[in-house]
Amino acid sequence: MSDRNDEHDELRKVVRAFLEHASPSSEVRRLAETDEGYDPEVWRRLADELGLVGLIVPERFGGAGAGAAELAVVMAEMGRTLLCAPYLSSAVLAPAALLESGDETACAEFLPDIADGSVIATLAVAEGNSDIRDLDAVWTTARADGDRHLLFGTKERVTDGYAAGLLLTVARTEKGLSLFAVDPEAVERRPLPALDPTRKLARVHFDRTPARLIGAEGAAEGAVARVLDLGAVALAAEQAGGAERCLELSVEYAKTREQFGRPIGAFQAIKHKCAELLYEVESAKAAAQDAARLWSAAAAASEQGLAASVARAYCSETYVHAAAETIQIHGGIGYTWEHDAHLYLRRAKSSALLLGSTSWHLERVAADIGLVPTA
């Protein structure tokens, strides 16, 4: 266990050192103003120099073959710096969807290019105003047309959907939910305004759009649910990392900002805020790490799903609270556009709705432990 902890510590140091130079606040703000929302050169280096883009891709498909524990380490560091990159989409959701499909031919065709960063991929699930975890609300349809399918419908809030070179789309056929690969050039895509400009969202419209079936027809529901659970584990780690950085910013400011001849950290109210945040942040980190550990240990699917929801719910609430308290502790300067505190609050608020709202995850936990009846 200690050897693995040492490996994770070394991975953390390497990723942190890279991101401190590649994702400073000035770069985050610059990329937030673009439609694509990422720097191709940084993305190339993440893939080539660090091997992070193909982190969870098996070695036989050109990846590193790492697990959720390593993914959590990387996501936490990216959360600390608000990295603007399609990592959650292209390095987590898309490869996980291909692997869960069981389609070896599709994996061999798509995963090497995803792993080396030459193709950005994403997963399109949500429709209308429904929660992405409500798979019954998927009404994009796929109709057979010879040896291919044609898609009809609209996907909302597709992460990095505007920059993607491959769209993995969940659609409904006569046999049930199925997964399809779509060329983005064949669809209508439009960037969506978002509270968090550092994570890009898009609307994708299909109108007789040619698509290739991935895996077995009608077999995608369980696979997509597992992909979203893994995404929730990764996102929880990112949230814990962001919350930890908010705490650091607050403590640093409380030590240096003076009022009435003393650092504001000497006042009881600020001490209480920082102490409470420390407890919550450490708990969030533990929840995220525990969820990642269960995934790496190949625990039962039900246990993994429960841990994912526990981590996501707690990390969401912790991150929002930490970001809001950071603004409070910084006082007037924390409310200004020039300060970075609002960037963390925007990321925290938007992440709480990503890959399943906090309420959805809490309801899942409540049902699992018997507080509410299951459907």
Automatic annotation (TrEMBL):
Cofactor: FAD
Domain of life of the organism encoding this protein: Bacteria
Record InterPro entries: Acyl-CoA_Oxase/DH_mid-dom_sf (IPR046373), AcylCo_DH-like_C (IPR036250), AcylCo_DH/oxidase_C (IPR009075), AcylCoA_DH/ox_N (IPR013786), AcylCoA_DH/ox_N_sf (IPR037069), AcylCoA_DH/oxidase_NM_dom_sf (IPR009100)
Annotated ranges, domain Acyl-CoA dehydrogenase/oxidase C-terminal: 226-368
Keyword tags: FAD, Flavoprotein, Oxidoreductase
Any matching Pfam family: Acyl-CoA_dh_1
Keyword flag Lipid metabolism: no
Signal peptide: none
One GO molecular-function entry: acyl-CoA dehydrogenase activity
Residue ranges annotated for the Acyl-CoA dehydrogenase/oxidase N-terminal domain, each copy included: 5-117
Family stated for the protein in its record: Belongs to the acyl-CoA dehydrogenase family.
Record protein name field: Acyl-CoA dehydrogenase
Organism per entry: Streptomyces fuscichromogenes
Source taxonomy: Bacteria, Bacillati, Actinomycetota, Actinomycetes, Kitasatosporales
